[in-house]
């Protein structure tokens, strides 16, 4: 009945070892991270000074999209160690089981979904490459879109072709690893949590003996399932609580960037039309990641709901009073809804996805109406 804890190297998703948080503690990686932060911070502060010096609305709207995106990149580079350490602490806190701890059907399902997670990462990497390549390929409007390009061409006119090429290449490499790594590291703990819940559901269904009633065995199985559920639930909530502030910062920055993007499209329509492929590729990349995030969030929420439903369906009538009390404690613990929630009003589930789609549709409608007024 009781599963064995998995050892290092027995993780169901091998691909994510390439994004181990310990990699970012290496001296060379830390040095590169500091250099990137300093480089983008210098450009960002220089452009901030130009905004204040010129103090023109159209000038700000023209470069605000790339300006706020670079701020998102700087924020990520600064806060990344905190998020990586939080996820690593969560993975170390939970007692993860071997994938063959339950029956063969669940083991096959875990292996199938592990393979699907790798496919998801490959598809995501493809979308990211397409989106970033479209940003890197030079266009006539680049100096009027990317403030970094404009700064390099204005400050170093003789070296502009070389410097802008170097900037485009490093921007693509840095942003690729930033987006792909952060996406993978975010998914990794929740895929593991979902696999753990699959096996826990199996153990809950088999608390009772098939042909006899052994109160001692039932008690041990009840306690094991209760402790395992509390351990996973407590560690998950602790992790989400720690990254709540970080996620709030990202939510605010992404909201500001979205507003600046809509403003740019509205005010600079001629330049925007020349970048249709850039916008479409960026939109496809963002939509794919959002769909996966909301899907995994809803799946975990449904799995926790199934824990309660499975407990309710158990034949507990012939148990002794001690086991009934443990069972009642388990019911109360499982009754509390669990969702991947980063703030009071933001959760990863279908309901929130619907709310975001509704808001996005409203914004698109307003922009469309303003465009033809």
UniProtKB/TrEMBL annotation:
The chain crosses the membrane at residues 31-53, 59-82, 118-137, 169-191, 245-267, 279-296, 348-370. It is found in: Cell membrane. GO terms for cellular component: plasma membrane. One of its GO terms (molecular function) is odorant binding. GO terms for biological process: signal transduction. Keywords: Cell membrane, Membrane, Olfaction, Receptor, Sensory transduction, Transducer, Transmembrane, Transmembrane helix. Its main location: membrane. It is a multi-pass membrane protein. This is Odorant receptor. It comes from Zophobas morio. The lineage of its organism: Eukaryota, Metazoa, Ecdysozoa, Arthropoda, Hexapoda.
